[in-house]
Amino acid sequence: MHTPVLAREVIRFLRCRQGDITIDCTVDGGGHAEAILRACGESGRLIGFDWDDEAIAAARERLAPFGDRVELHHDSFVQGLQALAPNFANLVAGILFDIGVSAAQIERGERGMSYRHEGPLDMRMDRRSTKTARTLIDNSSWQDLARIIRRYGEEPRARTIARRIALAHQRRPIESTAELARIIEQSVPRPFRNKALARTFQAIRIAVNDELEEFEQGLRAAFPLLRIGGRLVVISYHSLEDRIAKETFRRWAVGCTCPPGLPQCICGGQSRFKILTPRPARPTSGETMSNPRARSAKLRAGERLG
Ligand SMILES: C[S@@+](CC[C@H](N)C(=O)[O-])C[C@H]1O[C@@H](n2cnc3c(N)ncnc32)[C@H](O)[C@@H]1O
């Protein structure tokens, strides 16, 4: 059973108490969810979302002992949070996003997420979606691909890699992770290959799942559900996601928006959010040694004020 990342910090920042309602937006196999349920006493409740059918099935099994204290939905967190809005606005004590790809998704070749595992060129987290990595490549020009690889992978050789992918695709469709990996390897000098592989696969996966747009919308949908004093905790694994969390938190935390130099505030703006992590919390070296996936994790937390 896989270990949740930064679990102790998640529990500390969520500050779970008896009777609380907590939402786990990315429940996966239920690691954090189980820790939250243990921390919030006999009367605490958890609502969990994941758009991956296998993840929800695993979470149902793991969390079965908690009975009706848990409600799990096979849904994107944007849809799930929006559906809760009419009944749960201003009521939720804590909301967790532990975003990105799960260990199970990466390790299963048939999900097509990793250049390390042979499989179909799929990369969907939500297998009800019709957009796969293969259809994305089928329907993109080399310029589109270059933009995706540059923007979501921050890969300096994005144009060269994209041209090679498009050229290979003209000869015949690219069907597997191994074929895509070979094309990327042939596009860049040997010392840069591993980084180019990781960045290009990450970029295409982010585009297939619209991960960054989902995350931005998810944060927007989460805020109004929190009660005053409710806590939001976000764990991210790369700079693009972390930037979204950091900038959103900052925007919410801004109070007065008067131009600098006025003798007193005339806008009356009040901060709606207190940032609890001026710098993100990071895993200890002990945690990264026992769980290498935690290596790049950053946790940001904040509290709703108004
Ligand atoms: C890093 S894992 C979460 C691990 C989990 N916290 C645990 O303790 O086991 C990320 C999970 O978020 C899910 N996910 C990512 N984006 C999502 C979205 N927009 N809606 C629903 N689930 C999402 C993925 O399917 C994946 O299972």
SS summary, helix count? 13
Give average pLDDT, whole number: 96
Give a short account of the largest sheet. Answer: 7 strands, mixed
Low-confidence stretches: none
CATH-scheme architecture of the largest domain: 3-Layer(aba) Sandwich
The CATH C-level class name of the largest domain: Alpha Beta
CATH homologous superfamily identity of the largest domain = Vaccinia Virus protein VP39
Strand content: 5-15%
Question: What is the radius of gyration computed over CA atoms, rounded to a whole number of angstroms?
Answer: 21 Å
Distance between the termini: 39 Å
Question: Total strand count, please?
Answer: 7
Number of domains: 2
Portion in helices: 40-55%
Which structural category do the helix and sheet elements fall into? Answer: alpha/beta
Give, in spatial order, the strands making up the sheet with the most strands: 3-2-1-4-5-7-6
In N-to-C order, the SSE pattern is: HEHEHEHEHHHHHHHEHEHE
Shape from CA axes? globular
Question: Mind explaining what this structure looks like?
Answer:
This protein is α/β, with parallel strands linked by helices and about 300 residues long. It folds into two domains: about 5-105 and about 210-305, Vaccinia Virus protein VP39 (Rossmann fold), CATH 3.40.50; about 125-210, Orthogonal Bundle (DNA polymerase, domain 1). Helix content is about 45%, strand content about 15%. It has helices spanning about 5-15, 30-40, 55-65, 75-90, 105, 135-140, 140-155, 160-170, 175-185, 195-210, 210-220, 240-255, 285-290; strands at about 20-25, 45-50, 70-75, 90-100, 225-235, 275, 300-305. It has a seven-stranded mixed β-sheet, with helices on both faces. The longest helix has 17 residues, at about 195-210. The radius of gyration is 21 Å and the shape is globular. The chain starts with 6 loop residues before the first helix and ends with a strand. The model has no long low-confidence stretch (mean pLDDT about 95). Bound molecules: S-adenosylmethionine.
